[in-house]
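This section describes the prediction task in plain terms. A model, or a person checking by hand, is given the sequence of a single protein chain and must write out its three-dimensional structure as a string of tokens. No templates, partner chains or ligands are provided. The sample shown here is typical of the held-out split.
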Amino acid sequence: MKVGLITNSLAWAGMKDLKEISNWACDNGFKDLEVGPTIELDEKIFSDIKKEGKIDISALIYCRNFLDEENNVGDEHKKQLIRRIEFAGKLGIEKVICSTGVTKDAYYGARFNPEKSVEAVTEWLKELAEYAERNNVKIAIENCPMMGNIAISPYMWDILFDKVDSDKIGLAFDPSHMIWQFMSPYENIIKYRSKIFHFHGKDTEILYDNLKKVGILHNITEETNFFEHQWWRHRLVGLGDIDWNKIVANLYEIGYEGTISIEHEDPVWEGTLDKVEKGLIRAKNHVERFIEG
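The expected answer:
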């Protein structure tokens, strides 16, 4: 098992050159990169980093609503995802991480019924599986409910994996999203052992005092005070409610030999490049406490 990082937080903070990111990551002990959509797909730069061998690039990530029918937005996102699958195949990048897409009829009022999108998602995932097979790439679906996704729970995973029986389709397992949806990540690592292709290192903190005041349906707007109304927030690994000793122990139990990819979305450690860098290092150091040397 090794610790890597998703490039998004560094790119958002101003470090957008992949070579610069890879050098910084190497210097600070990271072993792998998961490259986000803000990084240009420059074949030479990617190839040079991989050939150098100091750090791996095992994944690309592109999460969007691929089933958004408004102004052909979804079709454009599909093209971008397929481009990444082909790019990954050409350069020997093992995985492409994405969402499923969601149809607009899945939403009604404050409710969300992901099963309304199953038929359209199934058709799309079968198409993705063919692209993945053709390019020798694995598709890892993130379980984040945002960005257009219905693979958000074990219940939905069972439905989708039953309908799309492909060894090229699996999970980018992110335990942080299970916490704020009040699902346990631990036993599901064991249950879905054969489908966990990738793992995100991100935590979540439930703000119970706010939860008691506003409930789970309250949405944050520019007019509301974040710290008064937000009832959960993403945190760096080790600063939220997740037991990372147990997470890593369960990953060892299933024989996971891949990457725990640090995904930095902690609002406390954002704002400057220096804070983002320190946050990434802090998260890496915490999870490495539980990884055998």
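For orientation: The two ends are 10 Å apart (CA to CA).
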